[in-house]
Amino acid sequence: MIYLDYQATTPLAPEARDAMLPWLAGPEAMGFANPHSPHRPGRAAAAAVEVAREQVAALLPPGGRVIFTGSATEALNLAVFGRKARQVAVSNIEHAAVLDSVQASGARLRMLEAGGDGIVRPDTAIDPGTDLVAVMQVNNEIGTIQPVAELARAAHAAGALFLCDAVQGAGKLAPPESADMIALSAHKLHGPKGIGALWVRDGIALSPLIHGGGQEQGLRSGTLSPALCAGFGAAAALAKARMAGDAAHVAALWKIARKALSGWTLNGSDRQRWQGNLNLRRDGLDVARLMSDLRDVAFSAGSACASGSGRPSHVLRAIGLSERQAKSSIRIGFGRYTVAGELEDACARIDAAAAVQGV
Predict the structure, then answer these.
(1) Fewer CB within 10 Å, N- or C-terminus of the chain?
(2) Where on the phi/psi map is residue 160: left (φ > 0), alpha (ψ -120 to 50), or beta?
(3) What is the DSSP string of 193-262?
């Protein structure tokens, strides 16, 4: 199997797995201890959590705190519901975790439209009375990098806070320095599933989303997993150390894939994007048939969160594609552990299988 779905999830880094193992050990090692308990094993587990917190914080701007959550989706919900905003502006290419949360919050919603290149204009006006603006750093479906620094300044000028979904950018790009809240996910940067984080700038108050025991700074009740925290921390530290090397590897892979699939149309900007995300279309392509013909190549028809819905991608529709064009698009994602020869072979097979369809 050739894995080309890095936007859905990334392979667990061996270093992250090794960091988790001591906290998954049996009773003789006491690695199972509750990090909220005051005895010695509990304090050791709590220390591991705090080391991980510092490692994750190193990926983010100074002057804030990291709150561990069960996922980036939970982190985004905490940011939205924890502020109780009355009026929110979000881009129309945001992840459903933002769009659905804002709609469920009851706040008045204004959409900030992305252009045909998949990028929100940096000079987009923010309406007076807006409490919160949410724009992602890197789009999960088409990989376009948003002008979050400029949009954050516009939000602040309007008196609003700025929330950034950095799930696809954390560990790959410099952090969005001007954001007030940043969400990220461990399993999108080679860490374990089941843990995310919300970074909150100092001085910003939130109300808890989950009530119970008041753990995690009073904002997220429930027992933290030292194993998941340790894995997240190790993955974050590795991403920071390898950021330049990973980017160079991805840039080389991008050239290989673009050459092999030169007859396909790129969705979104070809310059202002994370190059590990290649979203392409061939008009008339039967994507379901293509995936069936290539069962040993793992690629995507769009966001994993929306797969199987039968609906065309809201992101591709937002940038002006017709329903038919959106349904004729595929997403190829690659990164740190992708082998160049395997990528070249997979792309050649994708291209050949599409040609058999006569498109």
Answers:
(1) N
(2) beta
(3) SS-EEEEEETT-----SB-SS-TTTTTB-S---HHHHHHHHHHHHHHHHHHHHHHHHHHHHHHHHHHHTT
Superfamily name and number for 2-8+243-356: Aspartate Aminotransferase, domain 1 (3.90.1150.10)
Identify whether 164 is a catalytic site residue.
no
Put simply, whether the predicted model's pTM sits higher than 0.90 gets the answer: yes
Termini Cα distance of the chain: 25
Domain-by-domain residue ranges, the chain? 2-8+243-356, 14-238
pLDDT in tens, 106-120: 999 999 999 999 999
Joined tokens for residue 143? 């990989």
For residue 70, the 8-state DSSP code is S
**Beta-sheet pairing, 196-201 with 297-298:** unpaired
pLDDT tens figures, 271-312: 999 999 999 999 999 999 999 999 999 999 865 455 555 678
Place of tokens 């000079």: 123
CA distances to 27, 279, 281, 315 from 321, in Å? 56, 13, 10, 9
Q: How far is CA 143 from the centre of its chain?
A: 10
Q: How far is CA 214 from CA 40, 48, 345, in A?
A: 21, 19, 52
Catalytic residue among 164, 229, 305, 347: 305
Q: Report the C-alpha gap between 342 and 344 in whole angstroms.
A: 5
